[in-house]
Amino acid sequence: MRQVLTRRRQGPRDEPGRRLVARTRIVVLGAAGVVVAGGAGLATVGLGGGGDPAAARSALPPATAAIERTTLVETQDVDGTLGYGGARTVAGAGQGTLTWLAGPGSVVSRGRAVYRVDDRPVPLLYGGLPLYRTLAEGTKGSDVLQFERNLRALGYTGFTVDKTYDAATAAAVRRWQDALGVDETGRVAPGAAVVAPGRIRVAERKANVGDRVGGPVLTYTGTTRVVSVDLDVEYQRLARKGAEVEIELPSGDTVTGRISSVGKVAKEGAEDRPTTVEVEIAVAGRAKLGSYDKAPVEVHLTANRHPDVFAVPIGALIARGDGGYAVQVVQNGRVRTVPVETGVFTEGRVEISGAGLAEGMKVGVPS
To answer: Which residues span the membrane (predicted)?
Structure first.
């Protein structure tokens, strides 16, 4: 069974409250190939004249085509950006002078330095809680558990991974500090490490070597490329977490994606720009992504799906005197005219419905 995709563009507004549709596109997918249509003028292509179709009964058409059963998928085309997702800022804490920073594009993993202060490394740890207080003997809490998990992952032992920072933890911390080449205090102060959910990719330096610590140092993203979309709230219903989408790359290649997050807070557009929500899409088929970063892509969101639709070449339609359409069904060397209702048009293909139609029936088409 083939799939017919009807695509509509999310376009700019030419005046408040009215949206222009930049283009409608319909794609027929199947073993026989792909047909892409621009949206203009489809309803009049290949329809013939306006005479009575009964005159065509006396002669067989020059050629025939089979009625096909398809699944009709209507999609909304929206613009997106292929990159590494939204950037977060690392703010330096404590005192000292920046003596080194990881450069843009650098990937930093757990235990490796993100930047250096007074030539002492500030390493990356994984987690969701920042180092917001000094960790020392007697400290208890979820941040202690997070830190101890990192310490264990870095290969340090001799303590229990729990929510209590005890003497054994302090001893392991001193060994870690010795390996880093920093003061062996057995305590972990705010600013002693950068905490992120996982490996990071440096996006931009916000400070320079020689600057005093205290402001933004750099920004970072995740290491996996994603597609980000500022989606007009008019189409928010189409963006469901976990939904599969199609992504068209600048090269013309397409890859599959899956919506990983949908923003809960709308951003009001400036002037005549629409109000949007942020949508993030995980991308499959990474081999096709090349080195794209901050590249424009087109995302096809599924709007509606209509199974079991009949489709024929547009040339099979003949105009009826009442303004409707019909097709010539060819069976056993005879021709009969069957009135039809039309649905979606493609360049060369149209959805039809009518009494007595069946998959595989032959209809007349131009040669």
So the answer is: 26-48
Query: Can you give the residue range of the structural domain that contains 133?
Result: 88-221
For residues 43 and 210, the answer to whether their CB atoms sit within 8 Å is no
Mean predicted confidence (pLDDT) in 144-163? 98
| pLDDT number for residue 159 | 98
- Assign 287 to helix, strand or coil: helix
| pLDDT for position 137 | 98
DSSP, residue by residue, 304-344? EEEEEEEEE-GGGEEE-TTS-EEEEEEETTEEEEEEEEEEE
Average pLDDT for residues 295-305, to the nearest whole number? Answer: 88
* Pairing mode, strands 120-126 and 194-196: parallel
Question: From CA 349, how far away is CA 357, in angstroms rounded?
Answer: 16
Straight-line distance from the first to the last Cα atom of the chain, in angstroms, rounded to the nearest whole number: 25
CA–CA–CA angle 57, 63, 68 (5° rounding)? 100
Q: Can you say whether the dihedral through the CA atoms of 130, 163, 135, 133 is positive or negative?
A: positive
The rounded distance, in Å, linking the Cα atoms of 280 and 137 is 41
pLDDT at 62 over 70: yes
The string over 281-293, giving b where at least 16 C-beta atoms fall within 10 Å of a residue's C-beta and e elsewhere, is bebeeeeebeebe
Residue 140 is given by DSSP the state B
pLDDT band at 238 (very low <50, low <70, confident <90, very high): confident
Q: Last residue of some domain: 221, 256, 281?
A: 221
Are residues 47 and 97 located together in one domain of the fold? no
| Mean pLDDT score across all residues of the chain | 85
Please name which of 259, 252, 240, 242 lies closest in space to residue 296, comparing C-alpha atoms. Answer: 252
Instruction: Quote the tokens at residue 77.
Output: 């085309």
pLDDT band for 349, please (50, 70, 90 cuts): confident
- Which of 156, 187, 221 is the last residue in one of the domains? 221
Q: How confident is the model at residue 70 (pLDDT cuts 50, 70, 90)?
A: confident
